[in-house]
Amino acid sequence: MKSLMLYLVGVVSLFIEAYSFQKINVVKIRRPVSSASQLDGDPARRQSSTDVPTAVEALVMINQAQALRAEASALQKQLQFEKEERIRKEREKVDSLIDALLFHGTNNSNNDSEEKSKQQLINTEEKVAELLISKRLNYEQVNQMFDRICELSNRPQSIDSCSPLLSVLLDAACKVDCMEREDNPNKRWNHRVERDLRRKLFALGYGIRIEDVEKKDRIRSITGEKDYY
């Protein structure tokens, strides 16, 4: 569905450009055929005079261009809405996973702040490791949780200073990584989760997003571009 809508937007844009180009040229006024051309009966001149759009035709093309432009705008808004809705649902899914994996129970105390209450209810790394196995989570899902925790923390994360949630998540991932593959019933686990996330956390301490570095490396591997210092 998304591919079809993108295709329609592209087609509509081409029509708009075509009609806009024609609109510029339709302001010409039909000139009467000269008596000389009437006498010599030149068919080329007679044909050229009939090719000039009339005012009614010009108005029709302008209305069509405006309708196409409105349709393209509506499609773009719909695509943007669907994109935002997809991001919202993905965030809700990750938030639910974080709550199910890292927290347990509820705290009805009204004296403590929400953040302090949640810290008191964080699961142990043994419990989180158990859930990582039983829920059959993989690196991509744990990485999404990592990114979401960093986003919600509202402060820089690093190896030396990271959220308690990140700390317990990474320690639990380490426990699962250290298991023998044949002893781990979660076959979706690649046993490099903690290592890759520690590397990512180390880079964040220096303001580097490891995904951006890896993307540039992939581009350089294709284009053959090199760094010059």
Which tags fit this structure?
single chain, 229 residues, mainly alpha, 69% helix, elongated
Structure report:
The chain is mainly alpha-helical. It contains 10 helices and no strands. The longest helix has 48 residues, at 55-102. The chain is elongated, with a radius of gyration of 32 Å.
Q: Give the averaged pLDDT, no decimals.
A: 79
Helix content: 55-70%
Oligomer: single chain
* DSSP strand content: under 5%
**SSE arrangement, N to C:** HHHHHHHHHH
Shape: elongated
Alpha-beta classification: mainly alpha
Largest sheet: none
Number of strands: 0
How far apart are the termini? 46 Å
- Poorly predicted runs of 5 or more residues: 26-40
Could you give a quick summary of the protein structure above?
The chain is 69% helix and 0% strand. The protein contains ten helices and no strands.
